[in-house]
Specification:
alpha+beta, MetI-like fold, globular
Length: 298
């Protein structure tokens, strides 16, 4: 269950960032930028997720070097067929607690500041501010208490925190596949904003970037949030494909349980109940966000 939640939360976060960025860049007047983002959408949207997961997993396990020749980033990270090992603070629990507190404080201050100049989209600014504060707190704790750095120990890599190849493949596959759909949702929402809003923003002296950030994107969110909720729920359900690459998620362990006790119906009902509960939580949260956005003055 924790593995399913971990990859779902990480996938939603990365897919949202990539999707919003690609969707807005598709509005660029530069043909190369718009063309590359269009190719991103078409490739990841029009190929099966299962094939993407297998391709990414094979790239990691076949093309990356072994642990004895891992790609190194100056003691910060090691990348090999064993996965990604990254440096973490020695006091992991303290660093995590400080990061969570910093996220809450940063999000609160970001929300208060953004509400001064944004009617819609303050939540995105708050989340970005919270993430930045959490990262700074994490780095500060590491600088004070020291770092556990990954290092080659014989044929193995010790120290730091490890992201397995299975997690990396599933995380990247879910995020890339979902980001293509989110990009089209964001682009469609921006294009649905009346042209008069663009003209008004430009007439006020805004640059094109300022117009998108301050006028167009906040209005596009009103149209984008409901389909975004569907994409987030699809990502959670698609995480069940983890079984094909050996990631020990809910479905993988449930299959093992079925093989051991033969109670297939009971286990399948449990799987359905868990995914239903997770998606109902997402639906409630996104409905609350949508209600808040729709209440904002136009």
């Amino acid at each position: 269950m924790s593995n399913t939640l971990r990859v779902a939360v990480a996938g939603i976060a990365l897919a949202s960032v990539l999707g919003i960025a690609v969707g807005l860049l598709r509005l660029s007047r530069h043909p190369l930028v718009a063309g590359l983002c269009g190719a991103w959408v078409e490739v990841f949207r029009n190929t099966p997720l299962l094939i993407q997961l297998l391709a990414i997993y094979l790239l990691i396990t076949e093309l990356l070097p072994g642990s004895s020749e891992a790609l190194s980033a100056d003691g910060i990270a090691l990348l090999s067929k064993e996965g990604l090992q990254i440096a973490v603070p020695e006091a992991g629990a303290l660093a995590l607690g400080c990061a969570l507190m910093a996220f809450a404080l940063g999000a609160a201050f970001g929300w208060a500041a953004a509400r001064r100049w944004l009617e819609v989209g303050a939540g995105i600014v708050a989340a970005a501010a919270g993430a930045l504060a959490a990262a700074l707190a994490w780095l500060l704790v590491g600088a004070v208490v020291g770092w556990s750095r990954p290092a080659l120990d014989g044929f193995l890599i010790s120290g730091g925190a490890s992201l397995t190849p299975e997690f990396l493949a599933l995380w990247l596959g879910l995020a890339l596949f979902t980001s293509a759909a989110i990009a089209e949702i964001v682009r469609a929402g921006a294009l649905a904003v009346p042209a008069g809003q663009w003209h008004a923003a430009l007439a006020l002296g805004m640059t094109r970037r300022q117009a998108i950030a301050g006028a167009i994107f906040p209005q596009a969110l009103r149209l984008a949030i409901p389909p975004l909720a569907s994409q987030y729920m699809n990502l959670i359900k698609n995480s069940s494909l983890a079984v094909v690459i050996g990631y020990p998620d809910l479905v993988s362990i449930a299959n093992t349980s079925i093989n051991q006790n033969g109670q297939a119906l009971e286990v399948i009902v449990i799987i359905m109940a868990v995914y239903l509960s997770l998606n109902l939580v997402v639906a409630v949260v996104m409905n609350a966000v949508n209600a808040r956005v729709m209440r904002a003055p136009r």
